[in-house]
Amino acid sequence: MSFEILQSEVRALPVVARRKLMAFMVALQDEGRDGYAAKLAQKIDERSPDRWLTAEDCERKLGLSNESK
């Protein structure tokens, strides 16, 4: 299957299926990163509020907020 056909097939998927596919692709990419899951779990389990990020901080760091443009 060519990349162009694959793109067309993915574009035709319903939104929920595309989201599942994206999650699968991210998980697949992360499988090859040594220690990534453990490091991520450690950050998720962080108990100290001074180390937490707000939703706005996350959006800014990801370039999703209006302020970052």
Structure description:
The chain has helices at 3-12, 15-31, 36-44, 55-61. The mean pLDDT is 87. It starts with a helix and ends in an 8-residue tail after the last helix. It is built from four helices and no strands. It has two domains: 1-32; 36-69, no CATH class. The longest helix has 17 residues, at 15-31. It is extended, with a radius of gyration of 17 Å. It is mainly α and 69 residues long.
Secondary structure topology:
Layout: H1 3-12, H2 15-31, H3 36-44, H4 55-61
pLDDT < 50 stretches? none
* Beta-strand fraction estimate: under 5%
Question: Count of DSSP helices?
Answer: 4
Assign the structural class, choosing from mainly alpha, mainly beta, alpha/beta, alpha+beta, or little secondary structure: mainly alpha
Task: Say how many strands there are.
Answer: 0
Outline: extended
Number of domains: 2
Sheet with the most strands? none
Radius of gyration: 17 Å
- The termini sit apart by 38 Å
Topology pattern, helix = H, strand = E: HHHH
Mean pLDDT: 87
Helix content: 55-70%
